[in-house]
Amino acid sequence: MIIIATIAVYFCILLLISLLTGHKADNETFFRANGKSPWYLVAFGMIGASISGVTFVSVPGMTLTSDMTYMQTCLGFIVGYFVVAYLLLPVYYRLRLTTIYTYLQTRLGNRSYKTGAAFFLLSKMASAAVRFYVVCMILQQFVLDKYAIPFPVTVVVLVALIWLYTRRGGIRTLVLTDTFQTLCMLLALLLIIYKVVDVLGLNLPQAVQAIAADSHSRIFVLDDWVSTQNFWKQFLSGIFIVIVMTGLDQDMMQKNLTCKTLREAQKDMCSYGFAFAPVNLLFLALGILLMMYYQRVGQALPAVSDDLMLQVIAGGQLGTWVVILFTIGIVAACFSSADSALTALTTTFCVDICNQRKDERLRKWSHLSVSVVFVLFILIFRYVNSTSLIDAVYTIVSYTYGPLLGLFAFGLSTKRKVNDRYVPFIAIASPLLCFALDMIVSNATGYKFGYELLMLNGLLTYVGLWLNKAHLLSKK
């Protein structure tokens, strides 16, 4: 009951913020927050939106199988945020875009525009469902199974709560709720680390020394080019992951486009870009501390990396307060990513697919419909997932965001025209070719593509667009 009470109080605070920000809200408020968001609030809130509940579960567990090598990807993230801030944001602000995919219409054509928007709808719906699945799964495991509440009911109720506090104010509400949720998440993380360090009988300097001396503290892999943890693969993948998951993602860019000026949006982007690496370092450090705890109490390490934290929390070995803090952290992280996803999906559907910016009735029905489809995606993922949650997210990203990467890269790096009619086929063929190549190479050589699959996918789309133009010239 403590967890349910915690969530109830947490939701009441979110609903209060929604009531304050949703007063007299219209479509301009829902889509763009009237272009008046303070950049520092957007920056702080974006930390929580970028991390999500998947980080709470999967990143500490990654130390079991790949040490702290995920930091190589996080270093690439920093570079990626600067690329987005100084390459993509100026384009979006110059064109005064409500959705970023409108750029594809002005540069490549209407079918390219619709293709980009459609890939975003599929990509964001799938990846956001994975992230939100985390909080549903944890609540089910910790509390609701005891009361024989079915998992589908858990999903429907939680998504309904998000729909309730986002349905009026939209993005204006999210700027403030994300700020509150990020604060809750970071406080929960720090207090959980403090509790684990205390249980281990260490002070802070001793804990830092113990983490540094641990064999799992390895960050850089510079000698093994075959390994998916190789530095350059991870670092470059990190750059491109941010470019596509932030710079080419309406969900992440919608908040940045609510800043008053381009300069403020760039400050916002760079600020939370720098914050991303130390926050993930804390999660990885927590993973090592948890392994020390398992060793201290003589408990076997879990076979599944995602269970490293969940087993300790579920067992209640660290006390009731840690269970409460973990609940707050995971709910804050999951809600902050899911609520913005539903808002962005609604915006893209109304503006890009239906070409309706001012129809409030359509926007309200679309928001409700998107929420229903979101529930269905979460339930589907529950029955098909067979991998680490963080890997599941990045696998989805690699296959579905790759065509977006290729479309935008082609548009920004060249002035060539394309035959807009064939663009949808190119965008669909690229991920299919990537999947086939991955299977062939894996069976022939044993090499398995990692996060670099995203770059390959984008490259294939880019080449397809280039050959599309070459085909037109040869016909002439």
UniProtKB/TrEMBL annotation:
The keyword Cell division does not apply. Keywords: Cell membrane, Ion transport, Membrane, Sodium, Sodium transport, Transmembrane, Transmembrane helix, Transport. The keyword Cell cycle does not apply. The chain crosses the membrane at residues 6-25, 37-58, 70-95, 116-141, 147-166, 173-194, 231-248, 269-294, 314-335, 365-384, 390-410, 422-443, 449-467. GO terms for biological process: sodium ion transport. Its main location: membrane. One of its GO terms (molecular function) is symporter activity. InterPro entries: Na/Glc_symporter_sf, Na/solute_symporter, Sodium:Solute_Symporter_SSF. One of its GO terms (cellular component) is plasma membrane. It is found in: Cell membrane. PROSITE patterns: NA_SOLUT_SYMP_3. It is a multi-pass membrane protein. Belongs to the sodium:solute symporter (SSF) (TC 2.A.21) family. This is Transporter, SSS family. It comes from Prevotella veroralis F0319. The lineage of its organism: Bacteria, Pseudomonadati, Bacteroidota, Bacteroidia, Bacteroidales.
